[in-house]
Amino acid sequence: MHYKNFIFICSVFCLICLVSCAQGTGSGNVQGGDFTVQGKITHAKSKKVFLKQINFATGSPIILDSVDIIKDSTYSFKTSKIKGQHLFVIQPEAGYPFLFINDASSATLNINGDHPMTPEIKGSEGTTGLYQFLATYRTDDSSIVETFRALDSIHKIATPTIKDDSVRDVLGTQRDQRIVQMNKDIQHYVEKTPSPIAAFYVLKLMAPRSIQPEDLLPITQKASERFPEDGSLAGLASQLKVSLASSNPNNYPLMGQSAPDLSMKSPDGQDIKISDFKGKYLLVDFWASWCGPCRAENPNVVKAYNRFKDKNFTILGVSLDKDKDAWTKAIMHDKLTWNHMSDLKYWNSAAVSAYQFEGIPFNVLIDPTGKIIAQNLRGDDLENKLAEVLK
């Protein structure tokens, strides 16, 4: 089961904000030219409102215009020479951003500054559908977070004599079922939305949090086929293909080479180096407490460790956490009884550049001589590889 940022999960509002720093290709070519968007803004914290265009290629919003909110709380933007369908943000100067898609020549967006997720939309089918999906996504997201909070609560009260694995198992099953439902909702929306830029937005920023790249690729390809004139979806499918190809063991640049040595601190402040484990088969597992797919994969890693730990094999967890407390709690909660280290630098960790990976979970298997012999082993593949080398 795959999910990113479970514990410190981004809200849907945060995802709206993150669209301004997402990278990707250009937008589609379904609707364009002149368009007008107008409406009312109540509970505004300022008198000025901006119209911004999201540029996925540069990762920065472009300010197209600004107007003053007049006395009856109304605003109006008229923009020309916009080619293709794009994602825009209408944002009061001191307020929340509101997404808007130019899939019609004229639309109304009435905004309540105190309620960023519930604008009143008229005339834009793409914008209406996107906000309906965001409401569903927010519900799915909240239910998943609830299960993790419940699991954390069980962990906090657990002692060697007070355990409730049955409740933990039930909650784990609920979590997995809710992730499956979220993925179904994502796929259904992408298959039905009339807006290619909305499909791109969801596939680019949301779907990767819960859907593995190998499962996301066919969904993206299908969306690209629905909108053959849209370059963004075709580009995203191409990026996924490249990513999957790079995860092929035969393409990993460090395969067969000596493992780069790293030195970091253990949870109790001791220095640990990868080279400390030379002479054993070592799985270096790159993960983080905030990484949903990592947490979901941990039971498989625990199972493999328990099976092979007495056969000249061990694991070293290397965390991309920033918060030491969250890191140590996750180690205890997931019962990761092997050695751990971290420099607590998130994606700036020395591990990322040294081992050349772009996502987690990621791992490398190092033989007793210090050579990398496998990478990115998950689920049954991990146990099968260990069974092969630890005969």
Automatic annotation (TrEMBL):
GO cellular component: cell envelope
Thioredoxin domain mapped to chain residues: 253-391
Gene Ontology biological process terms from the UniProt entry: cytochrome complex assembly
Molecular-function GO term, any one: antioxidant activity
Keyword GTP-binding assigned: no
PANTHER family hit by this protein: THIOL:DISULFIDE INTERCHANGE PROTEIN DSBE
Name this protein carries in UniProt: Thiol-disulfide isomerase or thioredoxin
Organism of this sequence: Arachidicoccus rhizosphaerae
